[in-house]
Amino acid sequence: MNLEELSARAQIHDVLLRYCRGLDRVDMDLVRGAFHEDAWVQFPESLHTGSVDGFVAFLSDEMPRFVRTMHSLGNSLIEFDGPHVAHVETYLNADHQGSERHHWKGDYVKLWARYLDRFEQRDGVWLIARRRLLVDWMYTYPSTGWFDDHPDASARLRDGSDPSLHRVAGFSGEPLAKEDWPS
C-alpha cells in the first residue's frame, strides 16, 4: 500500500463520516456533499431509488420527523478498481426515535444494514457515484420503558446549533475554532 492509496482511503472514510453527521444533525448540505452531482441512490423501494437530488429531497422531509437519530459506521472494506474507482462496503447501525409526525409515532427503531458504494475520484476528489443500502434486519422497541430525563440530552441539537458543525480551517489553514472547543 502506498501513500496515494492511504490518502484515498482516508478521504473515502471522511466522506462516510460527514454523511452520517449530516443525517444526525439534519444538515442536508453535508449529506449532499458526499455525492457526485450525477450520483444514483438505491434505497429500499419504499424510501427512495433515483437521483441524489431526489434522495436529498426525501431526507429533507424525513429526517426532521425524527426526535433523534444516531448513525454509527462499523467495518468498512475499501477495494480499489484502478486508481480512480473504489468499491466500498460499510456496516451501519442506525438508531431512530420517531416523533408524533413520523409513522413510527415515538417508537425506537434499530437498523442493521450495509452501504454498498461506488466511490469515484473526479478532479482529485473522492465522492459517492452510486449507493445501495442493504437492510440486514430491523427491530422496533416500544416507546414505553425508555427514559430520557438527562437535562443535557442532545436531541435538541438537530437545528444547526450542534458544536460539531462549527467550521474549522483544515490542516494547513489559519485556525478558526475557538480555544475552548467544544463549547
Task: Tell me about this structure.
With 183 residues, the protein is of the alpha+beta class. The chain has three helices and six strands; from the N terminus they run ααββαββββ. The chain has helices at residues 3-24, 28-32, 52-62, and strands at 35-42, 49-51, 66-80, 85-98, 108-122, 125-141. Strands 2-1-6-5-4-3 form a six-stranded mixed beta sheet, covered by helices on one side.
Summarize the structure.
The chain is an alpha+beta fold and 183 residues long. The chain has helices spanning 3-24, 28-32, 52-62; strands at residues 35-42, 49-51, 66-80, 85-98, 108-122, 125-141.
Helix-strand topology string: HHEEHEEEE
Q: What oligomeric arrangement do these chains adopt? A: single chain
Largest sheet: 6 strands, mixed
Number of helices: 3
The 3D shape can be described as globular
- Sheet with the most strands: spatial strand order: 2-1-6-5-4-3
Helix content: 10-25%
Q: How far apart are the termini?
A: 39 Å
Low-confidence stretches are none
| Alpha-beta classification | alpha+beta
Output the radius of gyration. Answer: 18 Å
Averaged pLDDT: 85
- The portion of residues forming beta strands comes to 35-45%
What's the number of extended β-strand segments? Answer: 6
